[in-house]
Amino acid sequence: MASSEEITRALIDALGPEKVLHELPDLMPYSRDWSPRPETIAYLPIAVVLPSSTEDVATVVRLANQMEFVVIPFGGGTGMGGGAVPLEENTVIIDMKSMNRVLEIDIPNRVIRVQAGITIEKINEALEPYGYWFPHDPESKPASTIGAAIACDNDSTFGIRYGKIVTHLLNVVVVTGDGRILRLGHRKAHCSSTGYKLHWLLIGSEGTLAIITEVTLAIYPKPRSRAVLMYVFPSIDKAVRAIEEAIRAGIPIESANIGDRYRLHFYTHAYRTKYGQEPSIPEWAKAIVGLSIAGDPKVVRFHARYLSHIFRRFGGRRVREQEIVESWWASKHTLAFEPFKQKWPDSQRREKFGAADLGIPVGRLEDAHRFFTECTQRHKLRIIGMNIYNEAPNRISPSISFAVYVNESDPSSVERFYAYVREMSELAVRLEGTMSTYIGDGDRLGGFNRIEHGDALDLMLAIKRVFDPHAVLNPGKKWRSRWIRENLTEQPKP
Ligand SMILES: Cc1cc2nc3c(=O)[nH]c(=O)nc-3n(C[C@H](O)[C@H](O)[C@H](O)COP(=O)(O)OP(=O)(O)OC[C@H]3O[C@@H](n4cnc5c(N)ncnc54)[C@H](O)[C@@H]3O)c2cc1C
Hints:
By secondary structure, the chain is of the alpha+beta class. Helices cover 34% and strands 21% of the residues. It contains 17 helices and 18 strands. The strands form 4 sheets. Strands 15-12-14-13-17-18-16 form a 7-stranded antiparallel β-sheet, with helices on both faces. It has a 5-stranded antiparallel β-sheet with strand order 5-6-10-8-9. The protein is globular. Bound molecules: flavin-adenine dinucleotide. Flavin-adenine dinucleotide is lined by residues 33-34, 72-80, 83-84, 96, 116, 138-140, 143-145, 147-149, 151-152, 154-155, 206-207, 211-212, 335, 438, 474, 477.
């Protein structure tokens, strides 16, 4: 195996010194993402490469095969599962943010072609003058890249109308683990039934199969106006049924989040703290729904009125405090960290947001919520709350964030958090759901995700070998990781 110095020298020779970072201060930001981990532990990469083309990426991957180092594609570093974090000593990071150009906007064919390191926010800024938009919209859009949105299969605020990234992804250019450059997908056609859909295999692959360097996406006419509304309900079940009834009535709901009573408390507490008065939220409220409806102003007004009428039948009451509604919408769209607008007040300064991100069948939400409360108590974790996103068009399709506070300066808090994630993941499988809906396996679930996948995991490993025969791409992610092995006690099955 080549030494760090030999690898760095080879990278500089191949790409030029301006594309290779190797001084300690330049490497530090790449030792973490947003996943909770003890602040005393950091694995640094040998070097960080700043590519400008697919060929640059292929050059690094080919060198990795020759010199036996491993490679991690890194986007905005906002992933919550440790997917972009180096775990091995001989790691070279490829910072995809340096590939951030718009390559083509093709309005007649309703597509945009971009380099994979562009942020989702920048894609929409480029489309703005044309009256079109790309509606896949995670809260982290100012920092999170389109390549990673595909690699993590992340959630979108507008999932209940536009679905997940799979709906919008037409083709990708990738570099496989043995350095081949391939275009996968169906060019600018918006659907296809020929061949295998290998571009879809990249969805959720977390940089373990190939590095995505270019992406072609479907774009949509941008609505002219939007109403943002909030309601409280006596239970989560009532909130679910009200949204379903609105869909049945033909109301094209654009976004819908259901928060539990802890999340509701979060908003009322913030309002009380800021304005020194009680919001007019009734005592009986146990769930809060934030939603939007978009279209022409007249149509939006009509739908908002009709929705109100339906929601009242299920015990819903409109939240009158516009500040609360705006704070919810700002948390989705501006990531404004001024205390009231921040989703989890001051948490990122003292304690971190950590989540189990489960897909729970809709009929079992209350069961999952009960277990959540009990499990957090058992692991002595403070609850932030349960937030249900809906990620498939025209139906309730829960992608749930079961969020808690984690203190990274206390290793036992991190350990308890991962024990909690494991138990919650096992619960999801018991309830016939899934262990992850937007974070991915990262280095959290590897080692016990066989509970969900069974023998299919062996088939997945065989697919990994086809794309990445010498295992140079993102080792330890999706599969058992060295970090978990060394730092966390294996939890026995409950
Ligand atoms: C404040 C905040 C709000 C968030 N809101 C949401 C939300 O609303 N919805 C949601 O789903 N998530 C959300 N997240 C989580 C996170 O933003 C998403 O998972 C996002 O997709 C990560 O993008 P990134 O560019 O930061 O990826 P990174 O963290 O850099 O990487 C994530 C994974 O993708 C891989 N990867 C990166 N680029 C490529 C590439 N070009 N080819 C192949 N693999 C690649 C990495 O190796 C890694 O495994 C939020 C996070 C934060 C901190």
